[in-house]
Amino acid sequence: MPAVLLTDRAVLSVSGADARHFLQGLVTCDMTKISAEAPGFGALLTPQGKILFDFLIAQDGERFLLDTSREKAADLLKRLTFYRLRAKVELANLSDDAKGDEALAVVALFGDAQAPVDALVFADPRAKALGKRAILPVAPARAFAGDARGEYEAHRIACGVPSGGLDFAYGDAFPHETNMDLLNGVAFDKGCYIGQEVVSRMQHRGLVRKRVLKVAIDGEAAPGAEIRAGEIAVGVLGGAQGGRGLATLRLDRLEDSNGAPLAAGDVQVSVLDRAPQGSP
To answer: Domain containing 241: what range?
Structure first.
């Protein structure tokens, strides 16, 4: 699995004189620390602190490229346009709206895989074990990368890194609940951004009631299946691959279950690590 084309990802461009400042007032990560050598992971939240969109951010010359969910890309572009007001910022969807060499794709790189020379390559900022990402024109990306998506998903799950829209629902989860605070996705020492007060309060008061944890699954269960400990609902299953998965679990109910067997329907579920893992 040296290189996998991630067809579910899209690339947005944020450029212009005010690009960094514009994003700094919106997203959870600290844009002042992002450079060509240091990519970032962040999210745009609701005023109530829940994740609307999440993305990786890489600096490419004078512009920032957002590697985000293709399904949510158009809505993210619309939301950024709404917030732009008079800022000197140019926004573009370089996956769906661009043509020719300007149309970009995202590739996951593993091991010693070397991307074409015209690719923007950066380490995945969420976890070192995830490897690297490459953003490059669509045609060479398709020629270069394979379609071993199942292997990539198994690797992502093994790394304990949630995927929006699969392991949690956009608009329904706080950053702490998806482990963004442990995966370099939230800066607690930066200025204000949308939803910042709620996120800061959860951090300093220890109000996190649920987390995405790694689980083992003895059978087949669909994402979204309710996980129960007897009569107690303790969480929801996310994505799964090869007998391993991620699940959003209520930590207090998990504790109250006193080790009772967990199940998603008729399928047995076991928590592999009751403490979520951060970036190594």
So the answer is: 209-280
